[in-house]
Amino acid sequence: MSSDKRRAPRKKINTIGFLYTTEGWPLGECRIKDISTGGARLAHALSDAIPAEFFLSFSRDGKVRRRCEVRWSNEKELGVRFLS
Prior knowledge:
Elements: E1 11-20, E2 26-35, E3 39-44, E4 53-57, E5 65-73, E6 77-82
Antiparallel strand pairs: 1-2, 1-4, 2-3, 3-6, 4-5, 5-6
């Protein structure tokens, strides 16, 4: 029996994403490890702290993006929930 309590199943994608502050300033790149309709797991190598809310862009130009809220984090990964 799985202990996964997510509302939507996650799909492994392992692709590059780009992080921006809510004001639009770049934070750096990440690797999107898996994604669902409600959130994602990101791997990063950023030395600065990641803010509680930020934009995750799926393209370098930032046109395709989602506002995110950090739900959990450790040194190299974080889980985010997509906000409306």
